[in-house]
Amino acid sequence: ELKVEQNPLFLSMQEGKNYTIYCNYSTTSDRLYWYRQDPGKSLESLFVLLSNGAVKQEGRLMASLDTKARLSTLHITAAVHDLSATYFCAVDGGGSNYKLTFGKGTLLTVNP
Amino acid sequence: DADVTQTPRNRITKTGKRIMLECSQTKGHDRMYWYRQDPGLGLRLIYYSFDVKDINKGEISDGYSVSRQAQAKFSLSLESAIPNQTALYFCATSGGEINQPQHFGDGTRLSIL
Fold first, then answer.
1. From the list B40, B45, B105, which residue is nearest A99 (CB)?
2. Which residue of A40, A90, A105, B74 is most buried, as measured by CB atoms within 10 A?
3. How far is A85 from A11, CA to CA, in rounded Å?
4. How many CB atoms lie within 10 A of CB B112?
5. Residue A77 phi/psi, 5° resolution?
6. Which among B112, B56, B62 is positioned nearest to A95, based on CA atoms?
7. Interval A7-40: pLDDT, tens
8. DSSP readout, B50-63?
9. Interface with B, mutate which of A2, A25, A37, A42 (most B CBs under 10 A)
10. Cis link prior to A8 (omega < 30° from 0)?
11. How many Cβ contacts (< 8 angstroms) between chains A and B?
């Protein structure tokens, strides 16, 4: 059974600081997705990572995937208040099912 | 118009009632999914469907049933609602291409008293 673990679950940052969210998973996969959720809203796709060593960047967020370590990271550079949200990683266990197993999410609060 | 539409957006009901949550999509995707979100637990898969003749149980299917009425419609039913089914429910779709993420509806907030 695929398990996905995110840490930290809660992250309070000051504006301008850098930090990394970690996503570990238990079985081999090279399909990993990052989503953002604002309070009371739907999930918005951020990144799709499909191979070992994949790196994607959008603005102040950068995601990477190490399939050998079964680890993905979401790095935040020079945080701003608008990045406050819950961030989820989700792993596809492979095959043609396209089923996702989600981590519990990281609630990020960026303070002025 | 939203690509994935969930109705109702909010629902309050009583224990023992039958409830149906509906999802329709205009994306032309074959794959549709129902998830449940509880605070601190992330999203958990309830059921998924690859076409109108294919229904599969997810991680937490007990107490739920689904119907895929058409390629574009996927409904989730709670036959006899209980309070611990109070949650935020999301429908999602996928075109079956791994480079495309699942696309989520706006959610249905369900409260069972």
1. B45
2. B74
3. 10
4. 19
5. -110, 130
6. B56
7. 999 999 999 999 999 999 998 888 999 999 999 8
8. EETTEEEE-TT-TT
9. A42
10. yes
11. 58
Q: How far is CA A12 from CA A18, A83, A112, B93, in A?
A: 11, 11, 11, 32
Q: Where are the beta strands (DSSP E) in B1-113?
A: 4-7, 10-13, 19-25, 31-38, 42-51, 54-57, 65-70, 73-78, 87-94, 103-104, 108-112
Longest dimension (CA), chain A: 45
A81 touches chain B (CB under 8 A): no
pLDDT digits (tens, 9 = 90+) for A62-99: 999 999 999 999 999 999 999 999 999 999 987 777 88
Residue A56: helix, strand or coil by DSSP? strand
Tokens, residue B70: 């058409």
Whether the CB of A92 is below 8 Å from some CB of chain B: the reply is: yes
The b-or-e profile of B67-105 (16+ CB within 10 A means b, else e) is ebeeebebbbebeebeeebbbbbbbbbbeeeeeebbbbb
Residue with tokens 């701003």: A80
| Length, in residues, of chain B | 113
Are B34 and B90 in contact by the 8 Å Cβ rule? The answer is yes
Dump pLDDT digits (tens) for B62-100.
999 999 999 999 999 999 999 999 999 999 999 878 888
All residues at 6 or more sequence positions from B97 whose CB lies less than 8 Å from its CB, including other chains? none
